[in-house]
Amino acid sequence: MSRYLLHRLWQSAVTLILATIVVFAGVRALPGDPALALAGEDRDPESLRAIREQYGLDDSWLVQFWQFVSHAARGDLGQSIRTGEPVNGMIAGALPVTIELSVLAILVAGVIGVGAGVIAAVRRGRPAEWAANALALLGLSVPNFWLGLMAILYLSVALGLFPASGFVPFFTNPVANLHHLVLPAMILGTGLAAVIMRQTRSSMLDALSADYIRTAEAKGLSPRAVIGRHALRNSLIVVVTIVGLQLGALISGAVVTERIFALPGFGKLTVDAVFQRDYPVIQAVVLVTATAYIVINLLVDLLYSVIDPRIRVRGES
Amino acid sequence: MTTVAVPIRTNRRKIARRILRNPLAITGLVVLVLAIVLAVFANVLAPHEPTQTQLDQAFAPPGTAGHLLGTDDLGRDVLSRIMFGLRASLHVGLLAVATSLVIGVPLGLMAGYFRAIDALISRLTDLVLAFPFLILAVGLAAIRGASLGNAAIAIGIAQIPGVIRIVRSETLRLKSLDFVAAAIVEGASDAWVLGRHILPNAASVIIVQATVAIPAAILGEAVLSFLGLGIQPPAPSLGTMLSDAQQFAARAPWAAVMPGLAIMLLTLAFNIVGDSLRDALDPKASRR
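Predict the joint structure of the above. Result:
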């Protein structure tokens, strides 16, 4: 286990370092003089020189890179060009919204995806399987931002079932908070549910024809017990794997979903920063996303090896 | 040089027959062909110019004479804009997938064939994966500006890791087969083995990957244009149509419903064709 752990940690560290270099180089590739952008309306050469001095823009790239890394490591991600607000504060305010939205979406997708997948596998060749397959295909093909628009138009505006937009923090009012997030979470979870359903169905079909299931049935266990016990264990692996694989899609989806439902999350921060050409915020957002992706993937892999011992063995050999 | 038979080529007919026996696959193919015809001949078939505004005809509901699917807030014909939007979607979809294949296939082949660079390519794949497609597109839009081409490049780059992984594992599998070993023993060069034996046999896997990647790229374009990071107005794109329509969706729901349905039908058709192609190529999977 420890060798596998070290190997994965090392891999993640290398990826993280490479990602930091990419972000740093990417920001230097931005068009225009950063000092001009930072100065805004003030084009006076004296103040431009002061800004270059303050941000170390005349230093060598190596020095600048070291500054960037050491500041980022201490949690200092700079200030917004537009508002002068520290970027950490902006991210700290936005992140909980996105995390809650994503966790709810994974929950919704897991329950629907595993449920439909098990039904499709058990009711093979019957209408229930057809319906589940058709739903999965639809879920993969529907643009979820369009689904969100339709949901707002018909469920929120026409029927008034859910609020169309806005956000209430969980600790202010948990009920209102969930009421605001149920619809966005369902929309964000659609694609994920479809992928989980397909994978659950296929792994269930594999499992149902495996010897150990026949043994369990021969022992006289009821079909419900056989499916329940073995399916649940397998489904857990499927869900964890897919969340790991689909994490990028989930992050991208969250950005769009927040945009549609006007949620003050990470996605809104990102899109606003691009339109306002707020480079320090863009740089921070990209770095935080890449770091989060690498760390969550590491956690998923470790969790995976806890659930499925075969992975551990393979990593050690 | 070598006389060892290449197995996949013999059963192309069988694969075609398997697909044509599946009514769902035929429906998907028909929808796909129809969408491609509408997109390619949009300038001939569209009843109006996609950017022509007629303010006196704004918010015409579907079925209005001359506007089969209605008009938007500026009186532009929704049907014509959808046709040109389909053209943009297919354009981005093909461009993105072509980008990912041109870069991903050689890297995948090399990663699977040469052990020495496998680890390096895997690290590069991990690196690209660490930037979710939207973040990549955001960065690219910030550096190079928002456009159709940059959206396609961002989507293409995001799809490279998937291509590399699939081609790599197929290469690993093929490399262990006898006919490849025979070619190597006969003294064939690495380039010959890769180009002549491994690539042709990996073709089916690559084709399936492409049919899955095209609809994903089309959805990606729609998302980027919806956010304003893709195709720039007034050029018609299904994504920009949706983001425009969001503002007056309560007044003219058709302007929001129709482009979304168009995207969905297009991606659905691609997904159905891709699924049946995969089942036809791998009969074991379809029997499960």
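Chain B has a mean pLDDT of 84.
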